[in-house]
Specification:
The chain has ten helices and ten strands. It has 278 residues and is of the alpha/beta class. The longest helix is centred in the first third of the chain and has 17 residues. An eight-stranded mixed sheet has the order 1-2-4-3-5-6-9-10, with helices on both faces. It has a single domain, classed as Alpha/Beta hydrolase fold, catalytic domain (Rossmann fold), CATH 3.40.50.1820.
Length: 278
C-alpha cells in the first residue's frame, strides 16, 4: 500500500499534485475510482488526511493537492492570484480523468468545496461521479465580514496584493479538535477577498453541476451561515443535494470531535451506487 508524498517524477503530474506537501495514496489493488480531496484556505492536505486514509482502504486512489500559496508563508498566500487556485482544482481533476479512472469523486473542505464545485463546472463529469462539500462559504456567518470582503473582491489583483493580515475570527480552542491543527494563525485579507470573487463567479454557473452533492456543516459554524444548504440547493438546480447537520463538528469537520461520524458519512455516500446516493 503506497502512502507517500507526491513527487514530480511523472512529467504529466499537475503542479498542485507535484508539490512536496501534496499526498498521493494508492489502493492495495488496482483502483477503478479516484478521490480528489481539496483542503481549505490557510490549511494543508493534513486537514483531510484521515478522510484520505479511510478512502484508500475502501479501494480508492486518493489525491490531495497542496493549493498554491499554502504550505509556505502567509506572504506567498497573499500574493497568490485567483487563477492559480482555479487551475489547481481543474488541472488536478483533468489529470485524473485522463488517467483512466471510471469515476473521479471530489471532497472539498470550506474554500476547497468552492474549488471542487468549480472543477465540476469546468471539467467532464461522468455518470456516477459525486461531490462531497463541507462548510462551504457560499454565505459567511458575519454580515460585516460578508460586506467587507465582498466589496474588496471587486478590487484588481494588484491591489489585493497590498492588503494585510488579520487574526482569525476567534482563537479556536484546541480541545474542539481531535488532532493537532496545521494551519496559518492569520487570514490574508487579499486571499479571502479572492475567495469571494471565486464564489461570485461560481454561483452564476452552479446550474451546470449534474452530479449528486453531499453537504455537511455544523449548524453553529462560526465562519459559515446556516443558510448555505438552502443556497446550495437553490443554485444547483439540476442535481440532487443531500445535506447533514453535524452539531459540535466545528468548521474543520474532518478534524473535529465528530470526525468519525463525518468520515463515515462521506465514505457511505461515495461508496453507494447510483440513486442510492440520494
Amino acid at each position: 500500500m503506497e502512502d507517500s508524498q507526491a513527487t514530480s517524477k511523472d512529467s504529466t503530474l499537475p503542479a498542485a499534485l507535484g508539490r512536496p506537501q501534496s499526498r498521493i495514496l494508492r489502493s492495495e489493488s488496482p483502483a477503478s475510482k479516484a478521490a480528489l480531496l481539496i483542503h481549505g484556505m490557510t490549511s494543508s492536505p493534513y486537514e483531510l488526511e484521515e478522510v484520505a486514509l479511510v478512502l484508500q482502504k475502501e479501494g480508492f486512489d486518493v489525491f490531495v493537492p497542496c493549493l498554491s500559496g499554502h504550505g509556505e508563508t502567509l506572504e506567498e498566500l497573499r500574493l497568490t492570484p485567483t487563477s492559480d487556485w482555479l487551475e489547481d482544482a481543474v488541472s488536478s481533476r483533468t489529470y485524473l480523468l485522463k488517467s483512466g479512472y471510471e469515476n473521479v469523486f471530489m471532497v472539498g473542505q470550506s474554500f476547497g468545496g468552492l474549488l471542487a464545485l468549480h472543477a465540476a463546472v469546468e471539467t467532464e463529469m461522468k455518470d456516477g461521479d459525486k461531490i462531497v462539500a463541507m462548510a462551504v462559504p457560499l454565505l459567511l456567518s458575519s454580515s460585516l465580514r460578508e460586506w467587507v470582503l465582498g466589496t474588496l473582491s471587486y478590487l484588481p489583483e494588484s491591489l489585493l496584493d497590498t492588503l494585510g493580515f488579520v487574526k482569525k475570527k476567534t482563537p479556536q480552542d484546541e480541545t474542539a479538535f481531535a488532532k493537532e491543527r496545521r494551519a496559518f494563525r492569520k487570514h490574508s485579507l487579499g486571499a479571502n477577498a479572492r475567495m469571494l470573487k471565486i464564489r461570485r463567479q461560481l454561483l452564476a454557473k452552479l446550474w451546470k453541476v449534474r452530479c449528486p452533492i453531499f453537504y455537511l456543516q455544523d449548524p453553529q459554524d462560526h465562519h459559515v451561515s446556516g443558510r448555505v444548504p438552502f443556497i446550495l440547493r437553490k443554485y444547483c438546480s439540476n442535481t440532487t443535494v443531500v445535506s447533514r447537520w453535524v452539531p459540535g463538528g466545528n468548521h474543520a469537520l474532518a478534524m473535529g470531535l465528530r470526525r468519525d461520524y463525518v468520515i463515515d458519512e462521506i465514505t457511505s455516500f461515495l461508496c453507494r451506487r447510483g440513486s442510492e446516493s440520494a
